[in-house]
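Researcher: Good morning. I'm working through a list of sequences from a screen, and I'd like to move beyond sequence-only analysis. For each chain I'm collecting a predicted structure so we can compare shapes side by side. This is the next one on the list. No need for commentary yet; just the structure.
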Amino acid sequence: MSSLSWKRECLLIAMLTLTLAKASSPRPHIVVIVADDLGWNDVSFHGSNQIPTPHIDGLASSGIILNNYYVSPICTPTRGALMSGRHPIHTGLQEGVIMGAQPYGLPLNFTIMPQWLRKLGYRTHMVGKWHLGFFKSEYTPTRRGFESYAGYYQGCGDYYGHSYEGNEEYFGYDFRRNLSLDYTVIGQYSTSVFTNKAVHIIHGHNSDEPLFLYLPYQAVHSGNLQSGKPLQAPSSYVNRHPHIQNQQRKDFAGMVSALDDGVNAVVAALKSRGMYDNSILMFTTDNGGPANGFDGNAASNFPLRGVKATLWEGGVRGVGFVHSPLLKTSGYVSQQLIHVCDWLPTLYSAAGGNPEDLGESDGYDMWSMLSSNSQPVRKELLHNISPWQKKGAIRVGDYKLLVGGINMKWDGWYPPYQVTEDSYRLLYENPAAKNAPFKELNETSYKQLTDGREQMTLSSAVKVSCGPKPSNASTNCDPRQSACLYHIPSDPCEYNNIATWNPSIVKSLTDRLDYYLSTMVPPENKPEDPKGNPINNKGAWISWQD
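Model: Good morning. Structure tokens for this chain:
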């Protein structure tokens, strides 16, 4: 063999080896973290001047902050959309949440995220809150694509005792390891339990295989309301916030801090295993925060209007970010319109799958758009249509339409407990007015990041600017009487109803709402089945129809 032929053969072998290496390169590890009931104003990267979230902020600011991102106004619908890529009006989950012994769930005809990712060779694990049905075991996580599960089936519960009260007559234990009840965690704080289990999964994972870890925390949802102390956190976390005077808000801040530390521990585990550089982390809330005592909680969406379970921006505009070394472009604030339905096709695409294989979907593949900060993909989104409560909301382009009884009881602008709206607005809008105790605490927290660098400053926070609040802001819209219209980019706080001056836009959005109504399936909700009462099942919530 001549020297030239030998060189050519070596070159061909090298090219073939490189091609094979690329073909067999591992798919990215995917970690999806869901915070429960986390409000817009409960993270410091949104400008919160009460609760420092240095680890979450660091990931968000060095990743992609989703500033125009929307979820459903309440828990079960968001989780169903996240898992299935279908809007709640197409899964039958558009009316409220699954309560206690109601015998329904996310219908089994929907293939969900872990099942799709397993087709791509992923190992799939879930730790945390399910809330998508459990009356029959085939509705539960390990029967729907997850190899392992540790967590609880219901919507909330005690953070230490892990019991859930459906109502005064329905009360029982709710914590599992796979399909079996797990009583070993009694007395342990749920945020710590879930963090430790997630870290354990990462450390035990074969890093040559792609990992999908779904980590929906209990934090920061309120616990059992009848307990008298629904906001629960270890004193070590609560005591980090001496500057907060209101006890409920202080307890809530402790819950947020525990969550922030948990997120950091998960990322640290990925780094220690050498998995971080090939990982995608997506963080989201499931709905807006329950402010000022709503559902026994002390969250804040300020300056956005409304709370959890409403169709105001405070109920549906979600805290969210994507963080990954695999992003071509990062460290920016995305203004592109994104809905929770989009995560299944987006993550499936990022994993190397073809989103067209997913079949009928209400979501869009956003991976290329996010990774390159390119032109928007989505031009409109449906917030929800509630056929029983006769209400709905839709966003088309820059405009949002609200119709029907969208919960006018909670239609205000709620600062954190302890301060009036006027005084807090002054504090929020004037960086120089930030109180010294918080500023010192926040700067100290940032300097304690694991890599020793301050990754984000208060001045770089993503804040909503609303402008002056008009005197008639609370009275110029009553969608029970006639549709309300808002231009969200210029009026994110929904101060100015402009429906009267824009009848053609109202007509156009109403037509789109009618279109979605024509595609809607009936709600799946069922009345409670007494057989599901824990008193009939040895004091525990179980799949009683098995």
